[in-house]
Amino acid sequence: MAEKIKMTVPLVEMDGDEMTRIIWKMIKDILLTPYIDLKTEYYDLGLANREKTKDQVTVDAANANKKYGVSVKCATITPNAQRVKEYNLTEMWKSPNGTIRAILDGTVFRLPIIVNNVEPFVRTWKKPITIARHAYGDIYKAAEMKVEEKGKCELVFTTENGEEKRELIHNFSAPGIVMGMHNLNKSIESFARSCFSYALDVKQDLWFSCKDTISKKYDHTFKDIFQDMYDNEYKAKFEEAGIRYVYTLIDAAVANIIKIDGGIIWACKNYDGDVMSDMVAAAFGSIAMMSSVLVSPDGNYEYEAAHGTVQDQYYMHLEGKETSVNPIATIYAWTGALRKRGELDGNDELMKFADKLERATLDTFEDGVITGDLARLAQGKIRIVNTTEILDEINSRLVKMM
Ligand code: NAP
Ligand code: MG
Known about the structure:
By secondary structure, the protein is α/β, with parallel strands linked by helices. The chain contains 13 helices and 16 strands. The protein folds into 3 domains: 1-112 and 301-402, Isopropylmalate Dehydrogenase; 119-141 and 184-284, Isopropylmalate Dehydrogenase; 143-180, no CATH class.
C-alpha cells in the first residue's frame, strides 16, 4: 500500500456516547487510520468524562476548536432526569452542543446526504437543501403569561436611568395568553455573516425569509441586517462567485422551495429553522442521512452528524443483539472536517481522500448494500447489513480507489 497521507495541523476530535461512540472508533480503525497518519487533539465528551471533569472538557474542546479552526464531533447525550440516574451524575450537565455553540457563536447548517436509490418525497428535489437555523432567542428565550382576568397588558422597557417606554399589547376583557420575546442585533449579525460566508464557501444561492410585512420592527430588523450586510460587504463577492442572495417572505419561500431542484441554502429564524429542518430531513428520507456543520462568523468549523447517539440500538448492542447503525452522517462529519483541514493547510491529498471516502460510502449504499433504517425507503435490489459489515463494505470500495 502507498504511504499514509500526512497531516500538519491536528483536527480537534470530540468523542461522544452510546452507539455513535462505538461506530466512531470503528470508522477511525477501518476507514481512516489505514490511509491517513491521523493527527487529532482528542477530547472525550462521553458523559462519564463530562461528569469526571465537571464538564470542563466541553469548554476545553470548544476552545481548542477556536485555536485550530476545525473540529469533528461525535453525537453526545444531553442529560435529562433519566440520564442523571443512569450515569449517576452530580449535575444535569448542559447540552454540549449548546456549550460549544455559545463559545464559538456559530450558526448550524444542516444538509441531507443524497443517494440515488432513496428518492426524496418531493419529486423536484435533486440536490441537497441546506437549512441554516438562527439558534438564539425568539420563542426559545421568551417570557409567557396566562391572562386569567380583565386587564391591560403592555411591553415596558426601562432604561438604566429609569425612563420607561411602553407599548400596549392588548386590553384583555376575557382570558387569554401573552408572550414577550427578544433578539440581539449582534446575534443576528453573526448569523447573517455565517450564512453569507458559508454560501461563498460552497458557492450556492442564499435565501433568507421571515415575515417583515407583519412584524414591522422585529422581523424587519432581521431583514434589514441581512440586506445591509449584503449590500455593504458581500454583493461584489457573490457576483464574482456567480451566486445570488434572495430575500422572500417565509410563506413564499415555503411555496417556492417545493418547486426548485435544490442546491441552495435557506436561512431561517430560530423557530422556522427548527420546523423546516425536520421537514427537509424527512422529505429527503431519514434523519440518519443528515449532516451538520457549525460555522462561526470568524471562520471556525465544527462537523457532526445531525442525529443523536442511537440509544435504542445501543441497548440492543449491550444485550448482545445485532445492530444496523447507519454511519453515513458520522463519516461525512469526518470527511467534512478532513476536507476543510486540507483546504486550510493546502493539503491536496487530504482533500482527495475525503472525496474518495464519500464516493466509496455513496457507492456502497447505491449498490444496494444498506443499513436497516433505509430498508423501507430504498428502491431496487437491497441487502441489509449490520454495523460492522457496512463499514467493511465501504472499505472494500475505498481500498480500490486508493
Ligand atoms: P437519535 O439518536 O437521533 O435517534 C432517533 C431515532 O432515529 C432512532 O431511534 C433511530 O430510529 C433513528 N436513527 C438516528 N440515527 C440513526 C442511525 N445513524 N442509524 C440508524 N437509525 C438512526 O435521537 P434520540 O433517540 O432522540 O436521542 C438519543 C440520544 O442522543 C439522547 O440522549 C439525546 O440527548 C442525544 N442527541 C444528541 C445529539 C447531538 O449530539 N448532536 C442530537 C440529538 C440527540 P429507530 O428507532 O427506527 O432505530
Ligand atoms: Mg426540531
